[in-house]
Prior knowledge:
Two copies of one chain form a homodimer.
Chain A: E1 4-10, H1 26-29, H2 33-40, E2 42-48, H3 58-65, H4 76-83, E3 93-102, E4 108-110, H5 120-127, E5 131-132, E6 135-141, E7 146-152, H6 182-203, H7 206-213, E8 221-229, H8 236-239, E9 244-247, H9 251-259, E10 263-265, H10 278-289, E11 294-299, H11 301-307, H12 311-334, E12 340-345, E13 362-367, H13 381-384, E14 390-393, H14 394-404
Parallel strand pairs in A: 1-11, 1-12, 2-14, 9-10, 9-11
Antiparallel strand pairs in A: 2-13, 3-4, 3-7, 3-8, 5-6, 6-7, 12-13
Helix pairs in contact in A: 3-9, 4-9, 10-12, 11-12
Amino acid sequence: MERKVLLAIADGLGDRPCEVLGNKTPLEYAKTETLDMLAKNGTTGIMDLYKAGVPVGTDLGHLILFGYGIEDYPGRGPIEAFGKGMELIEGDVAFRCNFATVDDEMHIVDRRAGRIREGTKELAGALNGIVIDGITVLFKEATEHRAVMVLRGENLSSAISDTDPKKEGLRIKTSTAKDDSKEAAFTADLLNKVIVKAHEILKNHPLNIKRIEEGKFSANCIVTRGAGKMPKIKKITEKLKFKACCVAAEDTVLGVANLAGFETIHKSSFTGNIDTNIEEKAKAAVEALKTNDLVVLHYKATDLMGHDNNPQGKVETIEKYDNMLKIVLDLIKEEKLDDVIIALAADHSTPCERKEHSGDPVPVLINGKSIRKDYVEKYDEISCSQGGLNRIKGSDLISILLDYLELTVKQGN
Amino acid sequence: MERKVLLAIADGLGDRPCEVLGNKTPLEYAKTETLDMLAKNGTTGIMDLYKAGVPVGTDLGHLILFGYGIEDYPGRGPIEAFGKGMELIEGDVAFRCNFATVDDEMHIVDRRAGRIREGTKELAGALNGIVIDGITVLFKEATEHRAVMVLRGENLSSAISDTDPKKEGLRIKTSTAKDDSKEAAFTADLLNKVIVKAHEILKNHPLNIKRIEEGKFSANCIVTRGAGKMPKIKKITEKLKFKACCVAAEDTVLGVANLAGFETIHKSSFTGNIDTNIEEKAKAAVEALKTNDLVVLHYKATDLMGHDNNPQGKVETIEKYDNMLKIVLDLIKEEKLDDVIIALAADHSTPCERKEHSGDPVPVLINGKSIRKDYVEKYDEISCSQGGLNRIKGSDLISILLDYLELTVKQGN
Lengths: 413, 413
């Protein structure tokens, strides 16, 4: 039986002592039999995703966990585009968009076109494939009023300003170049033409005429933000020749996984919240282990509780995470996958007291029959700081795991 | 109550086992109730200021502790200039100078002008503001015979040799270019002209005529060393928008603090030696906490004992440092500052056996109610190596502390 790696990522897991938990962190406080059993039979450590004391976003945190450096970070637009299954190539410039409602003078009436939910696929389809000044516009709907747009062609730049005025009553902003390059001037000008062209197409679209008849806001315009240019990065699965899969609910994580060349599995029962179906997720992950070398199993709810300053809730979501891992282990046994390395990590800390990501290191753990065991018996921020992995960087973890799969490239001879 | 950070730095604190202390380090041997209490309720680690096994100077050590990289190190001249309260700008070239006594043929009669103590302010004033070849000379007296000189203008280089021959009887050296650039040739030539011009002005200065009448050495010349060019660096307090203050006795530390944009507090009772007034220092630091986000409290005597190979003396200075921290904690309590993070660090090790700075890591500690506590119960080099911070770099510490103040910049989204 071939060796496999399952990497479980609890988003925003790391925390600080919480007064309501008797000055324990939620992870210290929670009852986590499975996580602790994995610690007892594995090795542990703490990890700075990028640098000690520097918070990272979920996108960059996962980009690093999936084998990239901060220099590969393409900005939010491209990651959202990947999250929607679009395949970006080097030089593409991607944006996050809203469908919005404007009046005849392009003043924003509603930034979300009445939180439009239906018909955005058709509207996006009407914009997809427009060509202006030799540049192709790719357009895809996302959740509710959201969408992603990609400009594809020569000499594009992401150094251009947003067109979203962020407020009703204001006119859509004219995009301008943020640097002196010809490319930025060209792209800003192009984006402004795209906005006008999109308005022409959308205002006359049958779905919008119908929306007006029904007394709804017409999704007659788009506004953009977060321009990001796709850098020259190779899919890690192609570079190192392995198969990987990511089981997740969240578009951002799925986007980074797509960018890295991972297959992605997302079902409607994966909610990205505490009500997510952990049986389904565990099952999907173990099923994926059969055909992949590396499977990432992402769990979002822990992060939300940190953002909400809800230590009790974070304890609860951690105990559910522990349950999910128990199901995973049971299924692995059932499926007789007898050489699976289990790794536990997080993309950043989200301390309840801070309600935001922080630079505190996250606890990591690696368990498997070939792993050097240390003396740590619990999976939490404090215990793991005593572990055999010591303090590592985010980029180290994937490298260590891929080395167990004999995929890392030997240096020297 | 807003969160504050107090960073106490014991200069040259780290050491090696000393035979006379039963093979304990001075910090292990010393009775340090307060430091140990802070360890018991905080987290600890060891720290390489720059790289493992690489000693750093007090200037670079503090530059790193205050948030800069080795690439920002401007050389000794600029740091001394900042230490004297001069505000350097990008492109300035600064030097450490001595007032000296020369004969008519520019041979050194006394390198320190008889260790002149009085009138240097007037003499420096006479040189300050000279303009030669479009370059302005700024001049300021320092302790005793010492002074700092800054050349300000276009196209200056610091790649030039010293003019100080370092020995009586020798002629003042002619500065020469250390590389092939036009700038270095220009600056060396200019410096030679400055030396001649300064001699003309000084030898006829009334204060020197009076000195000769009194049978004293005439401070009729200057010699220079340590040319350093001010790099383009932004004050960290401006870059990250916070208020910081440094309480210290030593010009070098005050210089780095000024460079970093910290307010500085220096009273005559702060001596930089074991007789320094710890009550006054503690009081100044806690007072500064009220109006600053970060306060650095520097303690010099530990380093001196290392340089003197005086383990017993180092123990004594460490116990005094422990007392200073006790006073600090009492005052913080008294002032009801209820969310102060206390961090302990050092700028380098100065092992007694070496009598010089070494590359041994230094013990660090962070204490505060939001800090993940570890299992370490003593603040010393050995105990801290078991701590929850593990082994960090000098640049990590300030980053971690600024993250508790929510000042570090999140990467990604």
